[in-house]
Input
Amino acid sequence: MAVVQYNRSLGGRGLGGAIYLVLAFALGIYFTFAAVQGDYGMFARVAIKAEAAALSEERDRLAAELAEMQNLTHRLSDDYLDLDLLDQQTRDVLGYMRADEIAIR
Output
């Protein structure tokens, strides 16, 4: 029985290795790009954090505005009446003024 040796040429081995390296490099580039620029990448994370900060600022501003409106509403309610605020609102909304006042525009 004769032993047959199969000898691969250097070209076949080099081409397979080159294809493997090119494929591995391409996958590495793809996943790196996805990690930086993708939907869940670093740039998207930075944009989401900036949007969250802007929305937090808007929430705080709206909460302060709501507290001010609640205060004014309470001051004009039946239980608690601020006469100075009522006088100011009457002048602003209805345009009333007393007889001894002078209006300058």
Notes: The radius of gyration is 38 Å. Residues 53 and 59 are 10 Å apart (CA to CA). The chain has three helices and no strands. The mean pLDDT is 85.
